[in-house]
Specification:
2 domains, 176 residues, 68% helix, two-stranded parallel sheet, mainly alpha, elongated
Length: 176
């Protein structure tokens, strides 16, 4: 699911850039718009052949950009965005626990917001989302896990909060 979110974001960026290029390219093909003119009027003044050539050129440019982005995305390890791949690479429960503890920042927010995949990609999540990620990593190695919750005594909760406040946040973990 997280890979799907990355692709959707890339497609949105490419489409927005394509629209900007399309209108910018078309504006430059004829006289630049004046105070009385507009991009729509400039496009309307193009012949059908010019419009088709501009469209075909822009589609080709977007396809080239998409291929370039795919090459860029393929360079990254699957373990960075795929929970199953990461789970297979962490062969012991201790390694999975250490990964979530050390590489996924604690972010305070209520409820489940990101799920296992979103927590992995964002490198941060609340206690429930981090627990879901850990359970998913363990499940990849055939270990069943259940999520439980409890209440800590005040001194223990304060010590834990102090430890959390000294830990790196998600941005620092991603930058690593």
């Amino acid at each position: 699911m997280s890979k799907l979110r990355i692709w959707i974001a890339l497609i949105v960026v490419i489409v927005v850039a394509g629209v900007a290029v399309y209108f910018g390219v078309l504006r430059g093909r004829r006289n630049p718009p004046t105070a009385a003119g507009s991009p729509a009027r400039s496009i309307a003044n193009l012949s059908p052949e010019e419009k088709r050539r501009a469209y075909d050129g822009d589609v080709k440019a977007l396809q080239d950009r998409l291929a370039h982005m795919q090459t860029f995305v393929d360079r990254f390890s699957q373990e960075l965005v795929d929970v199953a791949a990461l789970g297979r690479s962490l062969t012991t429960p201790e390694a999975a626990f250490a990964y979530v503890r050390d590489e996924v920042a604690l972010e305070p927010y209520p409820g489940v917001m990101k799920g296992a995949g979103g927590t992995l990609v964002a490198r941060g999540g609340n206690t429930v989302d981090r627990a879901l990620l850990l359970a998913s990593l363990l499940a990849e190695n055939g270990i069943d896990a259940r999520i439980a919750r409890g209440k800590l005594p005040a001194p223990q909760a304060e010590a834990l909060l102090q430890q959390i406040s000294n830990a790196p946040d998600a941005i620092q973990l991603i930058a690593r």
